[in-house]
Each structure stands twice: as structure tokens, then as C-alpha cells.
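User: Need the bound-state model for PRP:
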Amino acid sequence: MGLTIALNRGRILDECLPLLAEAGIVPVEDMSASRKLVFNTAIGGHKLVVMRGSDVPTYVEYGAADVGITGKDTILEYGGGTHFYERLDLRVGRCRLMTAVPASTADGLQMREGHLRVATKFVNVARQYFEERNRQVTIIPLSGAVEIAPLMSLADCIVDIVDTGNTLQANGLVALETIAEISSRVIVNRASMKTKFDEVQLLIEALRAAVD
Ligand code: PRP
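Assistant: Bound-state model below.
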């Protein structure tokens, strides 16, 4: 029957394609040389669908895709494990979701007491993180270039992805606390887990072998 597999375009896709290839899932044409968004695979009758990372959980939750590959950050922001099954850590796309502040205000390892304005793309994760710590915050949603928010006096603090730390450093920020360790994960639609059990299981085991 074949599986529909939703893939996070960009960096995650580049790192996941070799793993998929090792698991026997190879698109019939070069994905990077095409403007297409849906690709058939040579063996197995699977379909690869390329989309924004934040849409992968939506496609998987509603069953438009059986399987999805996206970052743990995106999964956490979507609301995690009740909407689908998280089945495998691909151990690529590794980074951290962190709080960061301007170097000038980073007194020790603690952010200053009192109310904080927090700029982020990860509004749900950030809200929950500060709520659990009984911090009064205003979450300021942004869609990118979050690091400039403190420079522009829009926020006191940011919650964002940190990989090398170069972006923080270049903008005079320092990382404070790690909210979550991030890597790419394989998620599975709840109904597909039952109706396409064998195919899903084969895929997961092949990917697990590729990761190991
Ligand atoms: C991410 C993140 C940071 C940067 C961190 O952005 O939002 O801006 O990478 O990487 P570094 O620690 O190695 O500097 P990305 O390039 O993925 O683009 P985005 O703004 O679309 O998320």
C-alpha cells in the first residue's frame, strides 16, 4: 500500500535523506533539483511530502501523512505525544532549545527577578516553561530573527534554538538555561499505527538500524 511520509524541508531534510536511503527509501527524482513537493519512491510505493516543519505534526495528527519527521522543538510546541506516537530519535539535527539574555543583563546564571518579556517562536513551550517556574512573563510571538528582539528593546529574554551559539554571540546574547535537548524524531499517526502496522514497523526498524 505504501506510506505517506511528511518531511521537514531544509536542514532536517538534508540530514534525514541519507538515513531514509539507508532504510531503502529513495525518491525517484532528485528532491533538491525540483520544485515539486510530493515524490514517489523507487521501492515500497511510499510517498515523500516536503513541507514546513511546523506543518508536519498537523499532517500526521489528521492522518494526511502516516509518518512524519521533524524536530523535537516542533513536536513540543505542537503539544507532544497525545496527537500521535513519537517512535524514534534519529539523532540528527541536534541542538538545544534555550533561554538567552543580553550579556549585559546576565547576572550569574539567573535571570533577574520580576516580570519578563519573552520573545520566541515557541510560545507554548515558553509559556509552560515559565509557568512551571512561577515566573510572570509576557510572551511576544515572533516568526524569526528572534535574537534581535532584546537589541531592539522588544524583549528581556528569548527562547530559541541554539546550535553552535554563533547567532547568540553575534547579537550580544548569552544562553542561560536548556529547556530541551532537540533532535529529529519520527512520529506516526495513531490510526496508521494500527491499519498499516507492518509497514510502519518495517520503516521504524530500518531507520533504527540506519541510526545505529
Ligand atoms: C536557528 C535558530 C537560531 C540559529 C541558531 O535558525 O533560530 O537563529 O539557528 O544556530 P547557531 O547557534 O548555530 O547560531 P535557523 O537558521 O534554523 O532559521 P530560522 O530562523 O528559520 O529558525
